[in-house]
Design goal:
about 325 residues, alpha+beta, 6-stranded mixed beta sheet, 3-stranded antiparallel beta sheet, 12 helices, about 40% helix, globular
Length: about 325
C-alpha cells in the first residue's frame, strides 16, 4: 500500500484513515491544508453529467480529458465540491475512451519530479469509478491571484491554434518575458528531452506558462510543469513525437535536433549535453517506476518499450 500523494509506503502502524484513504496524514495536510481527508462531494452519475456539459458553462476545464473545477471547504468535515468557476483544485476522472489516464499522468509527473523538473502539486484520489488525478492550482497565493498566461495567450493565438508554432518561438517568449531567462530556458530544454523520452507528444502552447513570482509583481517566470502524459504510449497510432515543431520537425526526432534547438535558443552545447546525459542516466529508474506503477500491465510494457527506444535514439550521435 502506497500513499497516493507522495507514492511512499503506508506502514502497518499507520492510522485507519491513512490505510482507508491511502494518504499519509502529513500528506493530506500538505496538499489540502487540513488533517482530515476531505469528502469528495461528487457522485459518479453527477460526475458524468457535469463532465459532459459545454465548457462555456464553467464546470469543465477545456482540454481532451474531462476536467472538473473543485472548491475546497474546510471545517469539521472538509469537502471538495464542484465549482462553476476556476478555483483551488482540478480533478481528472477516468475516461471511457482511454484506459488509466489518471494513473499514467500520476506516474509521469512523479518521473518528472525525480528528473528535477518543477511540477504543480498533484496526487491520486479514489472514487467509486476508480482512481482520479487531482492537481492544485498554482495561480493563487495567500488568497491573492497570480497573473499567469500560457504561451498560446502570449503568442496571441486562439486555443484551437495551440498546436501551431515551434519550440524555438517558445524559447523566444522565455527570452523576452522571463526574469530568469537562462534558468527557464534550461528548464524548458529539460522538459522537452524528458517529454520525448516518456512519449509526451502533447506539449503544445497551452502546456507552457509564465506566472508572476509574487502577486502584483509583474515579474514573470516559467511556471511549474503540468499536464504531463505518455501520449505516444496511450495512443500508439499518434505518429507525431512532439506537439510543436523542433528544428522544423514533429516526427523522426533525433539527438542532433535537440542540439540544433539548444543552439538556436542560446543554450550552451555543454549544458544541453549534461541535461540529456542526466535524463539518460535515469532510464533504469523510469523503467522501475513503470513496473511499480498503477498502470495495467499492457500499458506498463508499452511505455517501457517506448522509453527504451527513445533513450536509444538520444544515445546515437
Amino acid at each position: 500500500m502506497k500513499c497516493l500523494y507522495c507514492d511512499k509506503p503506508i506502514i502497518d502502524s499507520a492510522t485507519e484513515q491513512e490505510k482507508t484513504q491511502c494518504w499519509h496524514t502529513k500528506c493530506v495536510k500538505k496538499f489540502f491544508g487540513t488533517t482530515k481527508f476531505p469528502i469528495i462531494d461528487i457522485s459518479d452519475e453527477n460526475l458524468i453529467e457535469i463532465a459532459s456539459e459545454s465548457t462555456n458553462k464553467g464546470f469543465t476545464v477545456p482540454g481532451v480529458q474531462k476536467k472538473l473545477s473543485l472548491h475546497f471547504e474546510d471545517g469539521t468535515k472538509p469537502r471538495l465540491t464542484l465549482s462553476n468557476y476556476p478555483t483551488g483544485y482540478i480533478l481528472k476522472p477516468q475516461t471511457e475512451d482511454y484506459e488509466a489516464m489518471p494513473e499514467a499522468e500520476f506516474l509521469v509527473m512523479n518521473m518528472a519530479k525525480i528528473t528535477g523538473i518543477r511540477t504543480v502539486p498533484f496526487a491520486l484520489v479514489n472514487l467509486d469509478s476508480g482512481y482520479a488525478y487531482i492537481t492544485k492550482r498554482i495561480d493563487r497565493s495567500d488568497g491573492k491571484l497570480l497573473a499567469m498566461e500560457d504561451f498560446c495567450q502570449l503568442e496571441e493565438r486562439l486555443t484551437q491554434d495551440k498546436y501551431k508554432g515551434s519550440y524555438e518561438r517558445c524559447a523566444k517568449l522565455i527570452g523576452r518575458y522571463s526574469e530568469r531567462r537562462g534558468f527557464d530556458l534550461s528548464e524548458m530544454f529539460l522538459r522537452l528531452v524528458f517529454s520525448f523520452v516518456t512519449g509526451n507528444s502533447d506539449m503544445h502552447l497551452k502546456n507552457f506558462s509564465l506566472i508572476e513570482d509574487a502577486a502584483g509583481s509583474q515579474r514573470y517566470v516559467l511556471s511549474e510543469a503540468y499536464d504531463l502524459l505518455p501520449v505516444n504510449a496511450i495512443l500508439p497510432e499518434d505518429s507525431e513525437q512532439v506537439a510543436l515543431t523542433m528544428n522544423g520537425k514533429k516526427r523522426n526526432i533525433r539527438r542532433k535536433d535537440f542540439f540544433v534547438f539548444a543552439e538556436n535558443a542560446g543554450i550552451p552545447a555543454v549544458a544541453a549535453e549534461k541535461i540529456i546525459s542526466d535524463v539518460l542516466l535515469l532510464e533504469d529508474t523510469y523503467i522501475s517506476m513503470c513496473k511499480d506503477s498503477y498502470l495495467p500491465d499492457k500499458l506498463k510494457m508499452t511505455l517501457i518499450d517506448l522509453i527504451i527506444a527513445r533513450t536509444s535514439v538520444l544515445r546515437i550521435n
